Structures are given as C-alpha cells and as structure tokens.
Amino acid sequence: MKNLKKVLQYNKLFIVLFILLGIYIYLTTVIIKYKSTLDIDKNSIEGVIKDIKLNGDKLTLEIRAKETIIANYYIKSREEQVKIKEILHYGDTILLKGTFTVPLNNTIPNNFNYKKYLYNKKIYYTLNVDSYKIIKNNKNLLYKLKDKLYKKIIDSDNNDFYLAFILGDKTLLSSDFYENFQINGVSHLLALSGMHINILLVIINIFLKKSKEINRIILTCTILTLYLFLTGVTSSLLRATLFYILKNINKYFNLNYSNMKLLFICAFIILSLNPFMIYDLGFIYSFSVCFGIFFYHDFIKGNYFIKLFKLSLITFLFSLPITATINYEINLSSIFINMIFILWISLVVYPISLIAFIIPILNPIFSILINITTFLNSIMNNLSIIINIPKTSIVIPILFYMVLLLRKKNIYYALIILILIPKFIKILDNNYYVYFFDVGQGDSAVLVSPYHQEVLMIDTGGKTTFTKELWQKSSKNHNVSDGVVKFLKSRGITKINYLIITHGDEDHTKDAQNIIKKLKVKNIILNNGSINSLEKNLLNQNINITNRYHLKYFNIINLNNELYNNENDNSIVNYISFLSYKFLFMGDASKLIEDKILEKYNLKNIDVIKIGHHGSKTSTDKGFINQINPTYSVISVGRSNRYNHPHEEVLKILTNTNILRTDKDGTVTFRLDKKGFDFNLCKP
Fold this sequence. Notes:
Elements: H1 2-8, H2 11-31, E1 44-55, E2 58-64, E3 68-74, H3 78-87, E4 93-101, H4 114-119, E5 126-136, H5 141-154, H6 159-167, H7 175-183, H8 194-207, H9 213-230, H10 235-252, H11 259-273, H12 281-295, H13 304-327, E6 329-331, H14 334-358, H15 363-382, E7 386-388, H16 395-406, H17 411-427, E8 432-436, E9 445-448, E10 455-458, H18 482-490, E11 495-500, H19 506-509, H20 512-518, E12 520-525, H21 533-539, E13 544-546, E14 555-558, E15 574-578, E16 581-585, H22 591-600, E17 608-610, H23 622-628, E18 632-635, H24 648-653, E19 658-661, H25 662-665, E20 667-673, E21 676-682
Parallel strand pairs: 3-5, 10-11, 11-12, 12-13, 16-17, 17-18, 18-19
Antiparallel strand pairs: 1-2, 1-4, 2-3, 4-5, 6-7, 8-9, 8-20, 9-10, 14-15, 15-16, 20-21
C-alpha cells in the first residue's frame, strides 16, 4: 500500500499520463474512423428508450439498440400526444418504423455541425418515424424512477423550468429566454454543474449531519451517482460528481493531492472511458473554468463580494476563448451579471425549485421567482456590452491561455490586444465577397466590399408559417437567418449598410426582423409595389427607408421599376457591378420581367446570376439566358421542397452555365479581386 501511494504521488507520473492520454485521444478520435453497422434497408429498429423529449407536436427519442440513434416523430393529434405521455416510458423496448437519414453537415460556414456533433456521440443515423410500438415494458428500477420523475415534471406547472433545474433538460425553455441567458453570459447556470452539486451537498448534509462521516460520504456519493444517472450523465455534472468522490478518496487515504491533480485525474478517467468527450462543449467549459479557479485560488481573497467578483472574473477570462470561438462575440458585462445571477439562482431560485417540486403548494412562489428571473434577464440583456470577435487561428486562444498562465502583472493589456487582433485582421481584408446562403426554400445573399466598408444584404429568407393549435406549438423559435447572422459575425460583420427587400413574400422577407434585432441595419430598400404586413413592420423600425444608394465600392441599378399586379413581378432586380464583375439578382421576377429588361437594357456576359423564383418554370426564359450569357447560375432552393424547384426545363436552359444550387452545394461563396475570383461551397 505504501509503495502504491509513492507511485501515485510521483509528480512525473502525471506528465506521462498526460502524454499517453493525448496519444490515446488522437488515435481513437482522429486516426480511427467509425462507421455504422446498422442495416438501414429494413427501415425499422428495435431498442431501449434512453431519452424522451416532447415539445409541441414533435417527439424526439434517443434509442439504444445495436448502436444509438435519434428518432423524430411528429404527433398527429392532441389525443395522440396525451396517449404518448401515458404509454412511453424510459427503459421501454420500442419498435420504430420509418426512414433512416444521414445527418447533414452545416451548410452555412462557421455554424454548428449537427452531423459532427452526433458522430462524436457515435450516432450515425436519425430516423424519421412513421409508426411505433411498445415491445416490452421497462422493469429496471432506475429507469422507473427516472420515468416517474420525468412524468411528474411534465405534468406540473412551470415544467420548463423544473425540467431545466432538476434534470438539466432545456428542451422546453423558450428560445427568447434562453437566448437572453446566452447573451448575458449566464447560460451555464441552466446547466447542471458544480454549483448545483454544492447546493445538493448542503441539503444532504443538513439531513445527514448526525451520521458518521464515512457513512455520510458513502451515502452522499451514492445519491450523487443516482442523480447523475437521472440527469443523463452530462459532462459538467459527471465532472462535479467524480471530483467529489475523488476528493473524499484523497482525504481518506491521505494522498495529499492538490485540487489541480484531482481535476486531472477526473479528466483522465472520463476521457479514458469516452475520448470523444474532449469535443463536448460542457466538458470543455467545465474543466477550463475549474482549472482557472484552482490555478488562481490564492487570488480569490477578500470579503464575500470581492471574492465573488474575482471568481466571476476568472470564470469569464478562462471561458472567453471558448465563447468567442463558438459565438464570435463576448459580453463584457457578464462579469457583473454573473455575480447577480449566481447569487439569485444559487441562493433563491434553484433551492426553491427543489422545494416547490416536492411541495406543489409552493409552486406559485416558484412562478413569481421565474417571473423575476425573466425580468432580470431582459433588463441585463439591455445593459450588455457586446464585442464581436471574428473567427481566427487557434494560435490566438492558445496565446490567450498562455498569458493567463504566466500570471504576470498588467496581463490585461496583452489579453486585450489578443482579443482585438482577429478584428483587425478581418477589416484589413481587401477582397470582395458575395455569399449566397442556404436558407432553405428562400433567398438571402450578402455582398461585402474590401475592408468591410460596405455590406449589402439582398433578402433575408424566412419560413412559411402555418397555423398551429396550442398543443402543437414548440417553445423553440428557430429563424433560418440565425445561421447567416452567426456567419457574418464570424467574419467580423455586425453592420448592414443596405438591407434590400426584393419583395414581400415570407421566404424573402420574414426574417428581416431577426436581422434588424441582431445586426445594425442602417438603410432599407423596398420595391415600388404595395406594402404587405411584413414590409409594414419594417416601416415601423427606426431605420432609414430609401430608394437611393450612396456607395463607393458597388454600383447598383434596379432594372425593374414598373408596377405589376403581383408581388413576384414587382421584385427588385439588382444589377450590381464592381471592378470588372457583373452580378444579377432576379428576385422572383417572371419571364415577363426578363423580356422587359431585355427590351430596355443591353446586358451581356453576366458573371453570376441569381436565378429567378428558385428555378420555377415561370422564370428563366431561354432567350433571356442566351442574351445575358451568365458564367455561373446560382439557384437558391430548399432540399426536397414541395414545389419541386428547380424545374427540369430551367436546368436544361442553364446547361451551358455552371449551375450552383444551395440545396446540393450549400452556401456559395465568391471571393473576388482585380486578378480574378474563386468560389467555395459548404456542402450538406
């Protein structure tokens, strides 16, 4: 035992283990490629329900079979929704029939890659479910306990917050609430982590204070392990639970390990069992912040509020490179916002959520606390100081952490310089860029001048909405332009000089409000047609509405100024030239407008045309294409759209051009300068 203790306390052991762990992770996650072993031709799968997410009319199941899959099913009626709540249980064996699909890569650059995310969880297929049947009911006591807890939460008032605070599941939280938490830099408080474990430990110790220490520790470890299972073994909670267990082992065997070494052992165990956890965002945040707190433990001194400020500062600095890499912006106010919310959530909201869940009569009190939290969240959001940090080389985050680890005086100057470097790099870019974004069945394009001096957006995209009953409505409000906004921020673009709305159809205009909310729009251009409700909303914004351009880098002519009796033919047709290049954006204009343009203008040798009306046969006349002779034809169109765009007739007409389609090629990027241009695709 003494010899083992000496080996465990040998400092170089950790260096050896660190090297071996790095090699192991590289081999198992990079070198070795994993593939599915499922027979997807059967169009069915039988497995155990590991997770249930029910939001509106969408049911998502995580099924453990030969390998794990994600199954999605759209509920057909309110009665079926009630039935599903009754018959589906964690641990049940279920037979699902439907169509297997391969998850898609992100089709807008620098956005979340769902396919890669699932791959890191060893999930290679999703299943669009047509039918389901319970084969065998669960008999596992742990699954029964989890199912009972889940059903009790789902059937309660404030189920969205109970689900988040008790099981760490944010499925039912509204998009607006969670987005504000993210902007404020406090979304980590909605993820079960060390803070929640510490609160649980306080509660457990109150009830077990008369027990012997060893019995209390064993029982506490058992309770935490059980809670870990109930919450789905999230990375941050796993780290907190395992660290508590290791800390007690360290104390019991008198190993004298520092918190830093215990944190390494914790990471070593987790990554040895699942090396793909190194790519988990919760894991990265949790270990980075804990490392920073332990590394600067002697700095966290003073009275309670001074220590809280220093703790918030360290948390902010050690999470900053991660947040900037993911969101391309940071909130400087989050240092102070964190202080307020840590006190509010940890001392008031979270403990009351546990008590109110156990004693439902107290639920109205919890409701009041939630309303206060929502109000604070909104207020703090308005006080946020947001700094855009464009995507940059991995070298910058590494240097940032190296500066933090040096612990020199006045390191803040070096940190500020490192934060600003990516911004300066982007604004020194002297190329032109034209982006045709994949926004599904819709249009959205952006043109960027050298040095980001001028940015034009033509249409915003938008999903067509259908009336839904209350039971069908999801808490999530996804905008197709969110990916566009994120990409622009990754390029250091936070301002739109001119937002050009070609016409008022939803698939071109609906996301304008989202663009205005998240980017600074200076001017809006509308067509000459009648104003519909979407365009009317734009008139109510405090933004200049104009039909004139004041530009240095782009020359823009609207080729369609006449009035017609339909929205599509009233589309603004943008002829945009710069350097020696000519781009033509047709909106949804029909063949009639194309003929009018040929009568009025002598257009030849267009470099790039955005094909009208998503490739509908009502647009793109053969004579028009032959006359303008485009080199590239871009069709903005959704995958498997119900209109069957683009039409075969249009594709035949475009045979002599280079056809680029957003449904097959993803976002199309043209980079241009005086010497020439190239293009890149972001394929699904």
